[in-house]
């Protein structure tokens, strides 16, 4: 109920700052057992459905629009934008400690089910993120929180961006969390980064690396917590695929940032 109300208020606050079309709630009902909000359906379809057939030039154009959107969003501060919001102030060091706890839990509950090579990969992922203090020297910003191709709407015929949806997870956080498009290839990620208007910090690539790699563990641990065996199984399969594709993802990341220096 609170999430519905919060998202509706946030969308109303954002509309004056975002140039891409976003949902505009027409009504919100939080009074019954089925809280919901309604807004006029945005035109277009999820980019995920069409990404494999989108021409390279159009992919770059979509990436540029996505980069500008992130620049606009990340310039905002939730607590200045919405003075009545009750979200806790994001604490970078607390987030670091939370991930230390997550890593400890992974070692106890997940490692017994992993191969030696999977454990080694996970050790490197977490240690390279958690140990350097520089990885936590960044300015939090207003993030989308679930920004991927599924939440970018495009015209199925022209592949022009028609809107951005799903702001339920929007909050003050690490900007790196909104750039996890390594699976989209160099041109797409480079277009996003090249059109991003906010200054990036030197450790953004390292944080992008970690925040991409840790995703399978979200499914595994959530599945354990909620006793959802299918989610746990999906998480282990996703981890296996992540490790298989890791060199490719790393190459996309490094090549995308290299284009910014040309």
Task: Please explain how this structure is put together.
The chain has ten helices and seven strands. With 262 residues, it is mainly alpha-helical. The protein has a single domain (2-259), classed as Alpha-Beta Complex (Aminoglycoside 3'-phosphotransferase, Chain: A, domain 2). The strands form three sheets. The chain has a three-stranded antiparallel beta sheet with strand order 3-5-6. A two-stranded antiparallel sheet has the order 1-2.
Distance between the termini: 48 Å
Unreliable segments of 5+ consecutive residues: none
Could you describe the largest sheet, including whether it forms a barrel?
Answer: 3 strands, antiparallel
Which band does the percent of strand residues land in?
A: 5-15%
Q: How much helix is in the residues?
A: 40-55%
Backbone shape: globular
- Tell me, what is the CATH class? Alpha Beta
- Computed Rg: 19 Å
Strand order of the largest sheet: 3-5-6
Overall mean pLDDT: 95
According to CATH, the homologous superfamily is Aminoglycoside phosphotransferase (APH), C-terminal lobe
Encode the helix/strand succession as letters. HEEEHHHHHEEEEHHHH
CATH fold type:
Aminoglycoside 3'-phosphotransferase, Chain: A, domain 2
């Amino acid at each position: 109920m609170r999430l519905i109300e919060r998202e509706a208020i946030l969308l109303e606050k954002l509309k004056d700052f975002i140039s891409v079309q976003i949902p505009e709630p027409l009504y919100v009902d939080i009074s019954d057992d089925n809280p919901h909000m309604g807004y006029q359906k945005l035109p277009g379809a999820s980019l995920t459905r069409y990404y494999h057939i989108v021409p390279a030039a159009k992919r770059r154009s979509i990436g540029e629009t996505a980069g500008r959107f992130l620049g606009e969003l990340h310039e905002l501060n939730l607590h200045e934008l919405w003075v009545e919001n009750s979200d806790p102030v994001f604490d970078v060091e607390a987030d670091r400690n939370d991930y230390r706890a997550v890593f400890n839990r992974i070692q106890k509950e997940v490692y017994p089910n992993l191969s030696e090579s999977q454990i080694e990969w996970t050790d490197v992922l977490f240690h390279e993120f958690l140990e350097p203090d520089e990885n936590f020297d960044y300015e939090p910003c207003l993030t989308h929180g679930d920004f991927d191709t599924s939440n970018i709407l495009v015209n199925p015929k022209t592949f022009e961006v028609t809107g951005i949806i799903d702001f339920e997870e929007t909050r003050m956080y690490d900007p790196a969390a909104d750039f996890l498009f390594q699976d989209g290839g160099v041109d797409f990620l480079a277009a996003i980064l090249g059109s991003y208007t906010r200054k990036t910090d030197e450790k953004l690539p390292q944080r992008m690396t970690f925040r991409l790699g840790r995703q399978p563990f979200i499914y595994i641990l959530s599945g354990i917590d909620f006793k959802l065996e299918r989610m746990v199984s999906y998480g282990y399969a996703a981890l296996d695929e992540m490790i298989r594709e890791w060199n490719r993802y790393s190459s996309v990341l490094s090549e995308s940032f290299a284009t910014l220096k040309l």
